[in-house]
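Long-time lurker, first post. I've been practising inverse folding by hand and with some scripts of my own, and I keep getting stuck on stretches where the structure tokens seem ambiguous. Below is the full token string for one chain I'm working on. Before anyone asks, I'm not after the true native sequence, just a reasonable design that respects the backbone. If someone could post their per-position residues I'd love to compare against what I wrote down in my notebook.
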């Protein structure tokens, strides 16, 4: 997951929210914190890692801010 997201960081214009990225990272269908493919504990770790990457600014400014 980290390798895939880091590749995308080179082309990113802005940071997507967790809610936008959740289907891509957890799979579909998914609930609020887990999916058929990812357990609740794993989902929490993925969310924590994605939010840390987003907060670092690696993908650019948050969606909605002007560049």
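-- Answer (accepted) --
I ran through it position by position. Result:
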């Amino acid at each position: 997951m980290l390798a895939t997201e880091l590749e995308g960081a080179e082309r990113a214009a802005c940071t997507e929210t967790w809610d936008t990225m959740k289907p891509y990272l957890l799979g579909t269908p998914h609930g609020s914190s887990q999916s058929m493919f990812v357990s609740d504990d794993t989902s929490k770790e993925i969310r924590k890692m994605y939010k840390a990457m987003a907060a670092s600014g690696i993908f650019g400014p948050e969606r909605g801010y002007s560049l």
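A couple of notes from the structure itself: The mean pLDDT is 83. Helices lie at 2-9, 18-26, 40-56. Happy to go over any region you disagree with.
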